[in-house]
């Protein structure tokens, strides 16, 4: 492990420790990747057991838009907050946005980039803006199994990069990057 990776891990642990001191409730067996944003009210967020949270996930516990009309005396005391509850055994994909007053799961997956504005039922894969269930967890598991290419698990464990680069995956074939030829109007450097 390099020094940068060690520093990043230490900072992440320190950050979670500080958020817990500020009131974030999170089980000890959660996996946090990168730097999710837990908002200005982490004490309104509860995260259950075996939850995975990807990088750049945003937990938004309040509606700051009310500031626009709070200048009107009728609305001067309006505030909008909501708790966020992530129940056991969920995965929240990269850059997902979880809005106030939402409960997710248990046993659910929120796809990368999803905007969760309403509760997500147990046992589903939810995606989109706004996030909606697109398939059951069982369907997602079967689809994942059917689209997994054949590979040697031991070779993968030992040489992950090489195995993945040889594997046929969605998105076409990997083409080597070739240097671009010089533009015709650019003359090569002469001594």
Key phrases:
single chain, 191 residues, alpha/beta, UDP N-Acetylglucosamine Acyltransferase, domain 1, 18% strand, globular
Description:
This protein is of the alpha/beta class. The protein has a domain at 3-135: Hexapeptide repeat proteins (UDP N-Acetylglucosamine Acyltransferase, domain 1). It contains four helices and 13 strands. The chain has helices at 3-21, 137-146, 153-158, 160-166, and strands at 25-26, 31-32, 45-47, 52-53, 58-59, 84-86, 91-92, 97-98, 102-104, 109-110, 115-116, 124-127, 132-136. A hairpin with a 4-residue loop joins strand 12 (124-127) and strand 13. It starts with a helix and ends in a 25-residue tail after the last helix.
What's the gist of this structure?
This protein is of the alpha/beta class and about 190 residues long. The protein is about 20% helix and about 20% strand.
Radius of gyration: 22 Å
Number of strands: 13
CATH homologous superfamily annotation of the domain at 3-135: Hexapeptide repeat proteins
Tell me the distance between the termini. Answer: 45 Å
> What is the arithmetic mean of pLDDT?
89
Tally of separate helices: 4
Order of helices and strands: HEEEEEEEEEEEEEHHH
Largest sheet: 6 strands, mixed
Percent helix range: 10-25%
Read across the widest sheet, the strand sequence of neighbours is: 2-4-7-10-12-13
Q: Report the β-strand fraction as a percent range.
A: 15-25%
Report the CATH architecture of the domain at 3-135. Answer: 3 Solenoid
> Which fold does the CATH topology of the domain at 3-135 refer to?
UDP N-Acetylglucosamine Acyltransferase, domain 1
Q: What is the overall silhouette?
A: globular
**Derived structural class:** alpha/beta
């Amino acid at each position: 492990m390099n020094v940068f990776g060690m520093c990043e891990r230490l900072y992440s642990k320190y950050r979670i420790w500080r958020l817990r001191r500020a009131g974030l409730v999170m089980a000890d067996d959660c996996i946090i990747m990168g730097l999710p944003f837990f908002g200005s009210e982490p004490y309104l967020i509860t995260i259950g057991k075996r939850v995975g949270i990807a990088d750049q996930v945003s937990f938004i516990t309040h509606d700051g838009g009310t500031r626009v009309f709070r200048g009107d005396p009728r609305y001067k005391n309006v505030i909008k907050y909501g708790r966020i509850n992530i129940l056991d055994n969920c995965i929240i994909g990269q850059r997902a946005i979880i809005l106030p007053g939402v409960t997710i799961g248990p046993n659910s997956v929120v796809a990368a980039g999803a905007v969760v504005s309403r509760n997500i039922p147990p046992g589903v894969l939810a995606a989109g803006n706004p996030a909606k269930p697109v398939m059951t967890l069982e369907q997602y598991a079967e689809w994942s199994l059917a689209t997994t290419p054949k590979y040697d698990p031991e070779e993968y464990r030992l040489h992950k990069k090489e195995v993945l680069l040889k594997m046929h995956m969605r998105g076409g074939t990997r083409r080597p990057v070739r240097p671009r030829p010089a533009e015709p109007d650019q003359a090569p450097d002469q001594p």
